[in-house]
C-alpha cells in the first residue's frame, strides 16, 4: 500500500518537474527570440 502511494507520488512529481522544465525552456526560448 505504502509503496503504491509512493509510486503515484513520484509519477506526480515527475509530471510537475516536466511541466516546470518545459515552462523554463519556453521562457528562455522567448527571451532569445526577443533579443
TrEMBL record:
Report the protein name in the record: Uncharacterized protein
Amino acid at each position: 500500500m505504502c509503496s503504491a502511494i509512493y509510486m503515484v507520488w513520484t509519477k506526480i512529481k515527475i509530471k510537475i518537474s516536466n511541466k516546470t522544465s518545459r515552462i523554463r525552456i519556453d521562457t528562455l526560448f522567448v527571451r532569445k527570440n526577443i533579443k
